[in-house]
Prior knowledge:
Elements: H1 2-23, H2 30-33, H3 36-46, H4 49-61, H5 70-74, E1 83-85, H6 92-96, H7 106-128, H8 137-162, H9 184-198, H10 216-230, H11 240-254, H12 263-266, E2 277-281, H13 296-299, E3 323-325, H14 327-333, H15 342-346, E4 350-352, E5 357-360, E6 369-372, E7 377-380, H16 388-392, E8 397-398, E9 432-436, H17 437-450, H18 454-468, H19 474-477, H20 486-497, H21 503-510, H22 513-520, H23 539-543
Parallel strand pairs: 7-8
Antiparallel strand pairs: 1-3, 2-9, 4-7, 5-6
Amino acid sequence: MKNLRYLFEKSTFVLKTAIAAALLSFGSCQSILEEDVISRIGNDYMNTAGGFNDGVNSAYSTLRMWYGTERGNNFTVFGTDTYRMGSDGSWKFINQYTNQFDSQTGQLNEIWDESYRGINTCNALIERGPNVTGIPEATKNLRLSEVKFLRAHYYFILVQLFGGVDLRLTETLVPTRNVSRATVSQIYEAIIKDLTEAIPELPAVIRTSDYGRATRPAAEHLLGKVYLTKATSEANAADDYSKAEVLLRKVITGYGFILLPDYKSVHAFGNEINDEVIFAVQYTRDPLNNGGGNNGHVFFLMEYDTQPGMRRDTQNGRPFKRYRPTNYTLNVIFADRVNDSRYSKSFVNHFLSNRPGTFNTSFDKSKASITFAAGDTAIYLPGIEWTEAERAAKPYQVLTPSLYTDKLYPALNKFLDPGRIDLTQFEGGRDYIAFRLADTYLMLGEALFRQGKNGEAADAVNIVRRRAAFPGKEASMVVTPGQINLEFFIEERERELSGEQMRWFDLKRWGILVERTRLHNLDAAPNIKDFHVLRPIPQNQIDRTEGGNANFPQNPGY
Length: 558
């Protein structure tokens, strides 16, 4: 693992500042491309064995543009039925779908430009790789398969967000204004081709020193998801679900992955490498080489740090108060708290005092004051209503649902990062778990359901549900074939995968994004419209295209 992390970080520096300047996509700014000396160094270096290897590692770094970042979360968590906005943040209009969310939105441009930088690095490696010497042929083929996995990954994000985009499968050395939008079908065809070619060459398992690289099961998991998504797109084919089924079964049965016995341990700090993880995006604790870091630890937290008996610390996190669970999430998705452990294991339910003393109460006015010693419970979130008398009997503040606000609410605990060097550090160092086995099981169950195989679908999802049960409650968690329907998957995927950058994509592919967001997200309901199932094409991309909007049309509604 250390070896890959070192190369990954080294390549981020070398290629992002040198090679990438020559390999930026058609969408890059002219001023960068005018740096001729750097461009020439990049071209020369890429053709060497060392440059090729660093280039491959650099191609991975674009994943950090999306996973665990503010932009990646804003475009997958915001604007859905399960999370609304907390009190803070400068990107609320993404959740609200107001006119401010337009083609000049900064994070939109970043996703577009960084994706194409990654794609063009992949293109350069695929084109130049066959002529690079000094690398064993088997190693070269392996690395090129990794790059195809990455290129497919980037295009899959783009096609889900924007629909048809520019399909670039060859290296762009200089800026060009001659670009156009491919069809959604053409994008999916390219994605499937890359992954199909990559799978046979990728290893079934990864050596510890190469942890973080693409593997055969990672590519099969991704391709299974591609088929599941394609099946409800304009590019759909009759055999999409059956193809997804075959791939997802391979991941489950062929490589030794297992669900961890305890749901909470999947995202436990320090356990990022575990037997359920199929693919993770690598971060590091080195502040010089971590880029923007994994920032997921800040976004889902409530304002615990200004409450009586509490101050901010690294254990409880730096609360940005961005994503607040909707009532639908709390009252419907996580309604079962007797049999299903995932509510109690996904959300913070108490805070221990780290600021001893006597204080006036803030939100819980069932008592006038409270006194804490270090380590005493300062705040408790039972998740259900208590009477005022029940709250008054406790020597701490009790935060019940009727007292929730845009500052105070159950905080998702999956991404907490107590390993940060201080209580203000934004650049977290935890790996981001992108693909995990529970998701594979749920996707398999959905693919089977879509084919009318409800019995087999129930068998697949019950494996996940039994793991989620409180001890002794496994039988109560089992669903029957008659309970398998789309609504089941709508709820079950969020119970298992809440906050894991999937919800917007799921709602879109199910065709219910607008309906469900309007129904459950009070912030978005007044503004979301049918055209919001696509994001706007960045205006600067249209402006730098020959013929402008006529040749690179904006998505409807923007």
